[in-house]
TrEMBL record:
Biased segments, Gly residues type: 35-46
PROSITE patterns registered for this protein in UniProt: PROKAR_LIPOPROTEIN
Organism placement in taxonomy: Archaea, Methanobacteriati, Methanobacteriota, Stenosarchaea group, Methanomicrobia
Ranges of biased composition (kind: Low complexity): 47-57
Name of the protein: Uncharacterized protein
Region (Disordered), start-end ranges: 29-57
């Protein structure tokens, strides 16, 4: 009998030991840290960004309604220091290189010393197709030819409005209603407070705005 009770006691101890082992917590799994904070899909890289320099303009709401005009921030103008005005006939008030994909931005500028000169260069997206052709002369050799054309969805537009009335003072762009010239200039010759709207799709644009130095 003593042997039986001893066996039962040992079995109970073994059962408790196994139950305790099953309830033990596993050590937490370590999560790898990727430098740059990005996911493995994009490599953690961020695209280039550019901002206007120096800041002479005030960000604003594009012009869809009268309410939008009423809610835009009041225009600001910083008189440039003498070091910037000296020997400079024109002051650079906005200089930006940006990508536009159905993007729209706007800002307000108080033109106190006309003219306002706006120059932009458009680099449109293109589509390359290949076609197999056979020469109709000589050995009638067959070859593959590449054709590169501007993407049909490309367009760009700059609109300059009177901030108070919304009237369009100047407007130009690339494709759609405008020519396919990649370099253009616009001029506003009258002083005033202007809302400048920039929009486009599938284009990289270099935009430079200058005004007469005070």
């Amino acid at each position: 009998m003593k042997r039986v009770y001893g066996a039962i006691f040992m079995a109970a101890v073994l059962t408790l030991a196994l139950a305790s082992a099953g309830c033990a917590e596993l050590p937490p799994e370590e999560t790898p840290f990727w430098s740059g904070g990005g996911s493995s899909g994009d490599g953690g890289q961020e695209g280039p960004s550019a901002s206007p320099t120096p800041t002479y303009v005030t960000p604003a709401t594009p012009y869809p309604t009268e309410r939008a005009i009423a809610e835009v921030a009041q225009p600001t103008y910083r008189t440039p220091p003498e070091s910037e005005r000296l020997n400079n006939e024109y002051l650079e008030i906005y200089n930006k290189t940006a990508r536009y994909d159905y993007t729209k931005e706007a800002f307000v500028y108080n033109l106190t010393a006309p003219p306002l000169l706006v120059a932009f260069t458009v680099d449109p997206d293109t589509i390359t197709r290949t076609k197999t052709v056979t020469s109709q002369y000589g050995s009638q050799k067959t070859q593959t030819v590449k054709f590169t054309n501007i993407d049909s969805n490309v367009w760009f537009e700059i609109t300059i409005r009177d901030q108070g009335t919304g009237a369009v003072v100047a407007q130009d762009g690339f494709a759609r209603l405008y020519s396919s010239e990649t370099q253009k200039e616009m001029v506003v010759r009258t002083a005033g407070v202007y809302l400048v709207e920039i929009t486009g799709n599938k284009v990289h644009v270099d935009l430079l705005m200058r005004a007469k130095s005070l």
